[in-house]
Amino acid sequence: MTPIIIGIGTGIVALLGLAFAMxxxxxxxxxxxxxxxxxxxxxxxxGRSAKCYHGGGAFVWPIIQSHEFLDLTPxxxxxxxxxxxxQQNIRVNTPSTFTVGISTEPGVMENAAERLxxxxxxxxxxxxxxxxxxxxxxxxxxMPIEEINADRDKxxxxxxxxxxxxxxxxxxxxxNVNIQDITDESGYIDALGQEAAARAIxxxxxxxxxxxxxxxxxxxxxxxxxxxxVAKAHAAAVEGENTAAVTIAQSNASRREQxxxxxxxxxAAERVKSAQAEQEAxxxxxxxxxxxxxxxQASQYADIVVPAEVEKQRIExxxxxxxxxxxxxxxxxxxxxxxxMEAEAEGMKAQLSAKADGFRNVIDATNSNPxxxxxxxxxxxxxxxxxxxxxxxxxxxxxxxxxxxxxxxxEGNGSTANFLSGLAKSLPPIHELTRxxxxxxxxxxxxxxxxAKPSDGDTAPVNPENGAG
Length: 469
Hints:
Blueprint: H1 2-24, E1 26-28, E2 33-39, E3 50-53, E4 57-59, E5 65-71, E6 75-85, E7 91-102, H2 108-115, H3 121-141, H4 145-150, H5 152-168, E8 172-179, E9 183-184, H6 188-235, H7 239-281, H8 285-365, H9 370-394, H10 415-425, H11 430-436
Antiparallel strand pairs: 1-4, 2-3, 2-5, 6-7, 7-8, 7-9
Helix pairs in contact: 3-5, 6-7, 7-8
């Protein structure tokens, strides 16, 4: 029994020793490492000389297999690239910092195992640095210096794409790229920075000028509104004069607005041209001279042509205002004359209407008898007719009448009698006057008979002052 027990114990110990040996050959892989199992792995059939594990673990057979670890800690690399030629053959200094690490991508890990296993950290850094230097020179040579300086994202993208491909060939991957200040030996990049600063300053000045212009326009509009309201208040008293004042106020407001706009445009044009001239001065002296000439031309235009145009518009506006004032004055005079004539016409119309109503009442009173109506109208005018007859002889001044009477004219008529008869006949009878007007007076108004011939014994009266003729 004792030998059997000893044999069983020996077997158990052997089994335990074998189990312990097998367990000691199971290698676990930490997350910050890559386990590389090499030796007789059967990977050569797949074109690989080792098996790589990231995380987990693997059994490593003794004698026929071995293992090592690749550290996944990021590796910083300082790249002080100087004198790299850009697309314009301008040498550029591009100091930068790259962060690389061993890739965990399947297929790339095997490249790391083949090319980096056994190398120290400085050796890996030197290898990556050579790859990065070459790719950066290639990328910078394909880009203009303006794009290198202005578009950092595009530069980093091109460098990352080129470097990533080359690093994968040795089992590395690009984690981060940090490009520092980019400079050049000729000072071209500094000139670009000064140009951008000048552009930003000029844009700010333009915005300030625009805000000031808006303020002046608002002020001018407020003043214009104030003058318009004042003019309207006075318009009730003197409409024509204050209408012209309103027009002048509007014209002045428009002129000030146009002057402000012309000044703003002139200053903006001058500043833009000045900025362009300064920008081109860093590129070539010849371009700077051309731009300076353009600036001078713009300045002369703003100093001569623009003020002349403004003065022309001002003169035209004043002329239009004076013409409008003259037209309104003439219009007021014409309205006054028309009002007077309309008033006179209304008075005449009222007078004629009243007279027509009187004639109508006369006709109604005579029961539409035309003869009776005519007679009444003539009776109304009879005092004026008699007054006209009296006026006919009222101006005749008779101081004395001297009659040389021979006793008769052969027909028994004395000279004195004939004189009086002729004088009476020389007056226009009332009946004759009315008959010439188409009106026949009634006979009860009297008739004009011929003067009776005096008898032979009658004698003309003797002027007491002159005695007998």
